[in-house]
Amino acid sequence: MVSRVIPVDSFDLVIFGGTGDLARRKILPGLFRRYASGQMPDEGRIIGAARSDMTCDEFRTMVKEAVEEFDPKSAKDTENLEKFLERVFYVAVDAMGDGGWKELGDLLRPDMIRAFYFSVAPSLFGTIAERLKTFDLADDDARIVVEKPFGKDLETARALNKSLAEHFHEGQIYRIDHYLGKETVQNLMAVRFGNMLFEPLWNSQYVDHIQITVAETVGVGGRGSYYDTSGAMRDMVQNHLMQLLCLIAMEPPAKFDPDAVRDEKLKVIRALDPVEPHHIVRGQYSASEKSASYREDVENPRSFTESFVAMRCEISNWRWAGTPFYMRTGKRLKARTSEIAVVFKDAPHSIFGAEAGVHRNVLSIRLQPNEGMTLGVTIKEPGPGGMRLVDVPLDMTFAEALGPDAEEVPDAYERLIMDVIRGNQTLFMRGDEVEAAWAWTDPIINGWTNRNDVPKPYDTGSAGPDDALMLMHRDGRRWREIKE
Ligand code: NAD
Question: What are the binding positions for NADP(+) in this chain (predicted)?
């Protein structure tokens, strides 16, 4: 199979915060990979803009070192790396003041797609948007890309939307949720809407329940002070898990176009029932022999912030009434894995008798570590001994199915940045979607605060607090094992 790389038009991409952690780890190495693959045109330019006073050459050295550190394999292509660095520029810009903006304007070329990536703290979004207009750097075709977190509740998200909307229209604003850039997430839509096989079964008549798990083995790391004001609900559920839930649950859009898809996702969020307190479990990781506790990590001995959350959700619409959606996410868990599992109902009658056991079809969609899908089907166990049934996986792991081409599957960030240049907003969150998601999560978080809810401790390397297991046991179901 030959992979097709369709080059994008020439562009000037300004990365505010170009010297920051996210730019060095994800954005710049990702752009290099797109360049090396031939997708980024020779005329494309990347302009770092940050507070540090450094020359263009110093920034190029920083970019080179970032690629070498975070993608050593790609960095071996030194010929392309040198050519890529010629496409990289730097201007010191003070987002809060007037310094550097004119110099930035002088670097930008007319008649070229302009994109501005706000890889800075959200408190700077409004002021950068305003200065882009004041210094006449962005016309009605320019795009801005904003990072998470997009607000910390409905009120702050609304204020953020309002401050951006004063200078840019919705069609120019690209709110990144990198989960949407993952190959498997897009494949989920291809599988659902490109095949006759699944969609007729995709409803409460045939689906028993759905599980969404995003498990991490790491703790809060160096993000402790931020994380402790956020917690798993704000950091993971309100954005990534809810986006996954929307894509699984939405009605088929009439076409694969940004507003058609986002309209359907929004309808799902609006149909979500409020979550009853007994349908949600919060947890906080304890110390192990090798690692510190959550409270030690965030240096807050009285922290009540959750590093784990599990919940049972219901969608009140024609398609899903009666099919629960279970979601869980947490840090310091048993394995690093992200999976959506669609668990189908039992066959209505077993012609093989009770001894054949109960077998269920499960469609497992894995986002990491190895992206792919597996459909569990029941077959006869080979050999003599009567009609014994076993479950076998129909494995669609992309790395195996696509061979060497799978290695060229772009990482989520680079794919999304190319979509910004193309002007395609399908995989970005619309302002009303983000607000609707906060409107659903706010009462849950406020409930915890009002009740002085204390998260349950759980062991590092476990599957979370026992109460999370009970959440499903009470319904006669069980979580899938957390494994890589
Ligand atoms: P960082 O602190 O490492 O970098 C911040 C960048 O902003 C630096 O380049 C700094 O020079 C620049 N900056 C700060 N104040 C400025 C000013 N007044 N004028 C001009 N530039 C200024 O932060 P980061 O980790 O790269 O995160 C950037 C954004 O991305 C944040 O909104 C963060 O929440 C979000 N984000 C980060 C990650 C990650 O993995 N690092 C993941 C998801 C989202």
Answer: 17-24, 51, 148
Every domain of the chain with CATH number 3.40.50.720 lies at 11-147
Q: How far apart are CA 94 and CA 99, in angstroms?
A: 5
d(CA 267, CA 315): 10
DSSP state of 149: P
Q: How far apart are the C-alpha atoms of 33 and 15, rounded to whole Å?
A: 17
Q: What is the pLDDT of residues 233-286, one digit of tens each?
A: 999 999 999 999 999 999 999 999 999 999 999 999 999 999 999 999 999 999
* Residues paired with residue 396 on neighbouring β-strands, in sequence order: 373
Query: What are the φ/ψ torsions at residue 395 (nearest 5 degrees)?
Result: -95, 130
The catalytic position among 167, 169, 209, 240 is 240
Is the CB of 151 inside a 6 Å radius of any atom of ligand 1? no
How far, in Å, CA of 293 to CA of 295, rounded? 5
Distance of alpha carbon 186 from alpha carbon 10, whole angstroms:
25
The two structure tokens encoding residue 10 = 């020439």
- Over residues 323-369, the pLDDT tens digits come to 999 999 999 999 999 999 999 999 888 888 877 777 889 999 998 88
Between CA 417 and CA 37 the distance in angstroms is 14
**Which pair of structure tokens corresponds to residue 76?**
């071996």
pLDDT at 393: 85
User: Can you tell me the distance from the alpha carbon of 267 to that of 359, in angstroms, rounded to the nearest whole number?
Assistant: 33
Best residue among 14, 15, 19, 119 to mutate for probing ligand 1, ranked by most atoms within 8 Å of CB: 119
